[in-house]
Structures are given as C-alpha cells and as structure tokens.
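Suppose a classmate hands you a notebook page containing two proteins, each written out with its sequence and a corresponding row of structure tokens. How would you begin to make sense of it? This section walks through that situation. The first entry is reproduced here exactly as it would appear on such a page.
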Amino acid sequence: MKTPQQDLRITTKKTNYYPGRPIVRFADQIVDGLFVVLMLLLLLVAIYIKMDSDSVYQGADPKRWIQYKPDFPEDVVSFEDLQKKNPDVKGWITVYGTNIDYPVLFSPEDNNYYLDHNSLKEPESSGSIFLDYRNNPDLTDFNNILHGHHMAEHKMFGDLDLFAKEDFFQKHEFGNLFYNGKDNGLQIIATILTDGYDANIYNTGIKTDEEKVKLINYIYQKAVLIRGVDLSNKEQSERERQLLQQGVTSPLTPRDTLIVFSTCNLTETNGRYIVVAKLLDHTVPNPYEETELKIRNNSEHIDTFTLFNRYGALPLWIWLAILILLIIVTFILYRLSRRRDRKITQRRNSQKETDAHDEHED
C-alpha cells in the first residue's frame, strides 16, 4: 500500500511532465545546426568575394604588363609582341610619380569593350586604359581623351584624384606617351572636377582655332588647379589681369595636342576627375623611375587611402584566419546566450514545479 508521501511524488511527477519538451529540444538542435551552416556559408561567400577582389586587382596591376613596355630592360617580350597579340594596342601611357603605367587600347566601335577587357582581349572587370573611340588612333585630334577605371590600391586611373591636391599637382608635372613608334613627353596642365555629361571636355570633334580657343578658355574656367595661373580669385576678369601682369600667355594654345585623362569621381553623382595634359616635342626624364611600380607609402599617398585601401591587400590567409576567428567567437557567444536562456527557462520551470508542489501540499 502506497503512503501519502509516495502519492504526492507520483502526482507531482505527472503534473510536471511536458510532452512537448523533446520537440523543443529537437527544434533547439535544428536552430543550432542552421546557425553553423549559415556561418559556414557566410565564410564561403567571404572567401569567394575576397578571391574575386584579389583577382580583379591583380589583373589591373601594371606589373602584369610591364614586360611589354617599350624599351623595357628585360628583353623577354616586346611591345610589338603585344601588338601582334592585339592590334588594338596603340601606345603606352606613363605618368611620372604615379602607378599609371599601362598600354593604351583603341576600339573603333565604342567605348564599352575595353571597360571590361584587358590588353589581350580577355574579359576582366578592371578593363584597360583606352582612347575614346571618336578620336583618331594616330592622335591627330586636338582633344584626345583617355578613359580608365578609378580603382583602389593605385590601379588603372586610381591616382588621378591625387592631382586635385595642390601639393601633389605642383610636384608631378610630367609623363610620357609612346605612340606611332616613338616617345613623347607629357606636361600636366590642369585638374578639373566635372561630370560625365560635360559636352565641352568630351568634345573630340574640335577642328577650328575658334573651337580650340573655346575649349582652352573653358578649361581655365573649370580648373581647380592649373599650371602658371593663380586661381585664388574666381572672377574671370581678375584672372585675365593676373595673366597679363605675369606676362603669362596660356600654357595651352590651339597648336597643342591635348591628352585628357578621364576617370570616375565616386564622391559625386556621375562625377569625373579630369587631368588635362599636352604633348611635348621632346621627352622628359622620369625622376621617379626607381620606384615607378611600387605602391608609395609617403604622406602624399597615405592621406588618400581609405581603411580598405590601406588594409585590403592583406594576404588571403590572414583574411581567412580573421573570418574563421570571427565565426568562432560569434558561435561561442551564440552558444553562451542559448545556455543562459536554457538556465533561465529551467529556473522558471523549477519555480513552477515548486509552486505546484506547494499548492498540492496546501
């Protein structure tokens, strides 16, 4: 015969049994498993994005093409070899003191092809430096426009924004353009901030002296920096007076050949960085030749870096280690949070059992 105490235990045990508890535990395990799977998927996506990003920047690295540069010391392959592989290669552009050191391409059909194809006509999202399709590939036009992507890590035309800084602009005046089989010096004259709809800057059909003077005057009006002119006073009449007092005629004349560098300015809607240069009838030595293809770490360049630009080039294994560590920490925090929730639930259930026991005793 059962005592009253035994009856109480049996009653209490039956009262505190929850048929849905195994289901809750099973659901809890599923949630944990889904969390792990999600973290692994995020890791795989991050690995893919990082590898794809590295591939883009490797494709845009001038070191990849330097072997083809005219007069490159190591005579392994030549510029002519590159032209045989792709007749659209028309020249080579170098801006001293920057990482701009690339073949110049030309597609007569449109400006779209070399936005996402390299110098060997291979699909590549970094594209190429290319001459506007409306220009004559022999550079016989007055206004010749070179296009290129504005990329991080000093790739393609990623250094053009540096010319919007006065100190950098004043210290970096020259470059070189190889075309028609010979080197030609470049003198950088002006920096302009405009948009992609600027009909004056992007006008390649300029023929008459009147049209050329109109463009030159427009460059003076729009320039944020221009060589030989003080632009501190924005009044045009004052600008003209200063020119006369200094005895300075325009650095640009209708007899010049303009080379206009154009790239995106992501700080403005459809914005563009424009650097205007002119061809010289002589070459200019490169004072930066020893460090020509290195990412420069002096203050002139560092102040243009974003955090991603500065640390984005870390080796892939470091990024993977960081991602794995973050996932592990996140999972540990998640498990601790789940364990805390379980303890709270158990405490509440225990309290309910105690309350039920007390009520039964009453």
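The notebook's second entry, a different protein, reads as follows.
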Amino acid sequence: MSLDGLVEDWSQVESAPEKLEMFFTEDLWPPDWSVLEAEVWVDGSLHKPNGDICDESVELFCSKAWTGMVVTIKMAFISTLVGFIFAVPLASLAAGNLTPLPIAIPARVLLAGLRSLPSIIWALLFAIAIGFGPLPGILAMTLYTIGYLGKLQYEAMEGISNAPLESAMAMGLTHSERLVHVVIPESSNHLLSQLLFMFEYNVRHGTVLGLVGAGGIGMYIDNYINPPFAYDRAFALLIVVFVVVVIIDLISMFIRSFVTEEGDVKRPKWWTVLLPAGVAADYYNKISKLKKPDSPINESE
C-alpha cells in the first residue's frame, strides 16, 4: 500500500518536528498564568469575565480559568445525568436478550444515529437554532451521551447471566420490572463505570464545543487561538483542563472502589512490574506459601 496519494509533500512531514519545536518554544511556553487572575480594569478594579465586580476573597474565583471550568463541569454534569436517564431505557430496548429483534434493531438504529454525529456538530446545529451559550452545548452533549452511553449499556446488559433473566420471565415480570430488579443490579458496576467515564469525556469535550460558541472554557480558548493570538494563555487553559480531568479520574477511581469486589487479591508491588513474568510469579508464589501456616516451607523450618 502506497502513501503517496495521502501525502502531497514529504518535505513538509520531515520539517514537522522542527516547526512544532519552534511553535512550542516561541508561542506556547511558558504558559501565561494570568488566566488564573481576575481582569484588571483601567481604574484598577478587579472584575469577572462577564464584567461583574470581583467580590471574592480569592482572586482565582473571578478568573477565566475558574469561571470557564465551572461552566464546563456544570454542562458536563447536566448532560451526563440527563443522557444517562434516557440511555438506560433505550439500552434495555436495544439489548437482544431483553427484547425481540423487531424492537431491538430500531432502538439500535436510533442510538447509532445519535452518536453518528459528533457532539460538536450537534452543538453547531443548536447554536444556529437557539443562539450561543451553554444551552447548545448541554443539548449537544446530552444527545451524544444518549447514543454513546446507550451502546455501552446495552452491550453490558447483553453480557449478564441468562439464569436471572429466565427466572424473572418465569415469574411473569414485565420488561420494566426485569430492568429494575434484575438487569440494573446485575450490570450496576459496568453502568457506574460507563457513567463516570462519560462524565469525564463530556468535561474534556466541553472544551471543544466552545469553539462553535457552545459555552464553557472552550469559548476562552477559542478567543485565544484567534487573532490577536495568545497561544500561551490557551495553553495555560489546556493545562487547567488536564488537571481537572486527572482529578475527576481519581475521584471516579475512589467511587468505584466501593462497588468493586477485590476480595483477597492484593495489589502487586511496583517493582515487580519490571521483572519478567516468570520471576514475578515465583516471587508471589513464595510469598503466598509463607503466609500459609501448613505450607511445606514453614514445616521444614
């Protein structure tokens, strides 16, 4: 297979690292952390990005980074919650082990249609219809969440054991009763993991929706990557987004720890990751034998 038809000028590819290094050193680094400060007007007063006077004790709470990130998190939370509420019943209709094919196939087509358009396209359509602001972003992420989360959920529902479903059908439970009393409890860990992942995804993607005027921190990033260019400030905002996403990931890990059955399995030592698989296995086998009172090692001692 030839790549000649995909790349017109290979010299541009060869010089790409040099261009990226120049762009990083001259335009991105160091980041302009003034985005963490309130706006200073001519009279010396501090103001929020919307023009209101900053009456907070901490100047960070009046900055573009804080206000934009708060709006983005609110947008992601609302769209994820609403999308999850609609995705669960649609996923149950699309699951092949819960509904017949004449119902499952149209439900899958609907979910595929919702996620076939990226959320930025949905946001653009809603921005044209109802104007700029957070609302088009919320509606866009909600529709995409329903389609994307619905697919993950009906696959998780199809993976549950058939025995509880057969017992529920033998008892004469309706579709909604089977969903509430059997399907959701059986797949709750997967559903929770998917919900937390979708929230993190919407927070990350909320930065992109601002490029089409759909609110959030992305609107400030869009302002900085357009004339007059301020890439160092945009880079600082991207670092803020990265830090927030990492914090959300740590929080989701903590939440999932309450529903994950770890049993007696211990976490591996960090340095065993560097060992060959056989050596690491021998190490853990010896440790497990030493902990057993009736092990041959202890008896020989």
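A careful reader of the second entry would note: Residues 270-300 form one domain.
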